[in-house]
Amino acid sequence: MGLLGWILLGGIAGWIATSVTGVGENKGCFFNTVIGIIGSVVGGLIFSFLGETGVTGFNPWSLFVAAVGATVFLLVARWLSRDGRK
Question: What pTM value is reported for the model?
């Protein structure tokens, strides 16, 4: 998958993750794309650890993996930021 594919997949996955978690909903397209790309890496690691296939290209499975990874990343980031304020 080329750079444009990663950007597009990241944008969609980031949008899904921010919609599900409510974290950073109003931060815009760039935020969603960065979160989605990070989520692709995180999701790939999680699914590889579980013995499943990670991100394999621009397809529904990869979008699912990236969205799960981005959601996990946002939830952990929110948990760490709340824990740090106490």
Answer: 0.84
